Q: What sequence folds into this?
């Protein structure tokens, strides 16, 4: 069996500007999330993010909170988990369209994949043979022509929905 990779490995596949955009969007309005996600996000930010001059990072100016959350997002799988769980909720209305498009490309999707109960054993490696970013984007847009997501958002949501990072499947040694 392939060794699963921690959530923070997602940083290899997203540009720093996009990571900051994700964090800014997540930190804009906590009311958009379910109470469980809102609670986990607030608790994790309060306990993990340290903004100089603020006991409670949630009271810091947004740009400082984004900056310091971004630093942790690069290395801390727990921070990645709560931020991406919140971000995913913003687009869950498109979940069925994504599942249909991704299943049609040979992916398997799981309702548990986006929640990643274990942030240290989350991602598998390898998309179906012959599948790349443009094919994923095209299939999803074809399935939902009114989709209000950028190409980068589509790819990230697809990774989170399937639990598979782009690239070739790792061969098992043995």
A:
């Amino acid at each position: 069996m392939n060794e699963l990779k921690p959530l923070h490995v997602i940083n290899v596949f997203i540009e720093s500007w996009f990571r900051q955009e994700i964090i800014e969007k997540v930190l804009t309005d906590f009311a958009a999330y379910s109470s469980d996600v809102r609670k986990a996000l607030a608790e994790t930010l309060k306990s993990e993010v340290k903004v100089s001059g603020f006991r409670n990072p949630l009271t810091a100016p947004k740009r400082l909170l984004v900056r310091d959350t971004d630093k942790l997002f690069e290395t801390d799988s727990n921070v990645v988990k709560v931020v991406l769980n919140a971000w995913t909720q913003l687009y869950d209305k498109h979940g069925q369209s994504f599942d249909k498009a991704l299943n049609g490309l040979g992916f398997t999707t799981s309702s548990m994949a986006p929640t990643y109960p274990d942030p240290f054993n989350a991602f598998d490696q390898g998309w179906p043979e012959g599948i790349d970013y443009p094919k994923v984007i095209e299939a999803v847009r074809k399935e939902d022509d009114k989709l209000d997501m950028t190409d980068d958002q589509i790819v990230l949501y697809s990774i989170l929905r399937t639990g598979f990072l782009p690239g070739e499947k790792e061969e098992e040694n043995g």
